[in-house]
Amino acid sequence: MRSLPRPLSSLVSRLPGDRLRARLRDSYRRRPEPFLAALLASVAGVAVFLVATSVFEFHSSNHDEAVYLQQAAMLLEGQLELFAGDLAGAFRPWFFVADGGRLYPKYAPVPAAMYAVPMALFGEPRVTLAAVAAGNTFLVYLLASMVADRPVGLVAAALYAASPLALVTSATFLPYAPTTFLNLAFAVAYVRGIREESLPAAALAGVAIGLAAFARPFTALLFALPFVAHAGYRTVVALRDGGLRPLQSPVVRHTVTGLGGLAFVGVTLAYNARLTGSPLTFPFEAFAPLDGPGFGRRHILSHAITYTPEVALRANGYVLRYLTTRWVVAGPVGTLLAAAGIGTVLRRWVRRRRTGGAWTPRDDAALVLAGLFVTIPLGNLFFWGNYNVLGTPSDPTDGLVSQFGPIYHFDLLVPVSVFAAVGLVAGWRWLAPRLSGSPGSSRLGSPSRLALLGVLASLLVLGALTAPLVATPLERNAAHTEKYEAAYEPIEATTFENDLVFLPTPYGDWQNHPFQYLRNDPGFDGPVVYALDRGPAENFAVLDAYPDRRYHRYTYRGEWSPDPGQHVRPKLEGLDVRGGESVTGETVVGVPPRVDRARVRLSTGTDGHVEYTVDDPADEVAVSWSLTGDRARLDAVPGESVRVGETDRVVLRVTLVQPDGSTLTYRQEADVRTTGGVEVVWPPERTVCPLTTDCGTEGTYLPDDPDAHRDGVFFRTRLRVQ
Prior knowledge:
The protein is 50% helix and 18% strand. It is α+β, with helices and mostly antiparallel strands. Strand 13 and strand 14 (631-634) form a beta hairpin.
């Protein structure tokens, strides 16, 4: 007599009522697989949650995560779009469409809505990641049980949960695992509707695939096509055999499923009309009209190619190669098991046909599931995203595919896991009697027990083969997390209550690209507001909109790049807007040895410049300057000045020159406004640049880091308001 596993037994013992506990024990003794599948799903959910909170603590290098999290926060506020008005350029998040002062995401809100639920309940959206991982695992169990039987379902769930693609991608706030959850719910409900002739199941199937289509239309279409073909065939057969009166149950079921899906097509069109103004224009089209499926010129932002069938075949060939060798359970071994499982099902079909056996719902389930091996790879040929996930196509360690896998083929994990389980269990069921020596019991145990032990041993072997496949992308992603952790250190160390932080723009005027961890509340009114550091006029507009906040500038020393090994040294400094009728300043810079002259230059974006030279400077050079009205002056050059615009950037450079011509330039840039007196954002941005006069963030001055600069280098500034 079976007893409950210890975790389940502990859980059951806490349930109220002796009768309920007794029923659960009896149910487990009769059918242990659903309980074990639930336990396995829970383990998968916990594993994904742990990966999400450790490896992806600051999110991944795929900045689409920020889009969905920003969208989730918007939904909780009842918003489908952001309203930034004249400040839209300073607040525009990554992959948001800018329509005047209105901003809306290019993605549909279904995955974001799934992330929003635990955000509202627990303040932690990663709960959704765990729930989706657990749900997908259990749904794979249900689907495989319908294709074969419950033991196969249990093995399929284990194979799915152990797949590197399932573990890694499910731990990120990306739409692929949530969409698969909806697709799986559709598949399970569809097959159950056939098996049990259930209208509620058929209705649920329609709702699930409708939501999936709302979330990712092309992905849902490729998954649904085998089921649509099957439904069409069964409907035609039913009408041919039974006519319209009485209406045949297959016709009713498939009609109900279709109506459920079409209802969400209507929701999708209404959503499009609400955001883009046209029901037939999707937000992703409004963002990049040439980013969708198809051949020819494909274009998004500054990235464009001519996507030909030849390019598609080459790119998808690599993607499928990496999927089958690196991202499914046990790599090529898991792929071979799936092929063996398909062969097992085909052999079953042939044997039944030869013996005159009837076609069963189980055969229907296996047929539509096998159809995914056709529709998903062929359909993905039309989508250039599979080209974009590859860095160097022949190198599986380069590009997004090296970190997240073949994400657009995520749904293929379902048939691979199911048919691999079919092949594995069938193999051991065939082998067990031969190992035991007889169909009955033997010294090695009964064939059924031997088969069970063989399957368990095989799962352990497959797990051992999978471990290095999982560890490699996790290590790559962990390296990015270390980079983000270092970059966000001053942000994490600061408590914001009523603050405004200006952010750098290494990849252009986008928020959350790359700093997706730093997101605004939907109303741009949270304890901290993040704005892009774009220029004097734009920055003063932001400052005017938030007059009562504490101001900061976040920057770093170094160059931000996708390379996880290239870290930056971050800096968060407080800012102030200081002004009066005029301001005077002094800038003092250190002079290292072997410098024979210094060139001092003051310039603005509106006018030219004024400069002078210091011969044989001592250990430091002190520069006095002033701003009065709309003029900027160097005290050492009386009678000369440069004009300052209404909003301008005033740049002071002190270039030290060695006898061999080598240079070291101190550069300070201050945003200035001259309407109604003089206002200066202080302190200025300061950089120290060897061999060039402008080196951007690579030369950011870090006064508190003694290792950041060579001996003799220092930079002091002082401002007086009059």
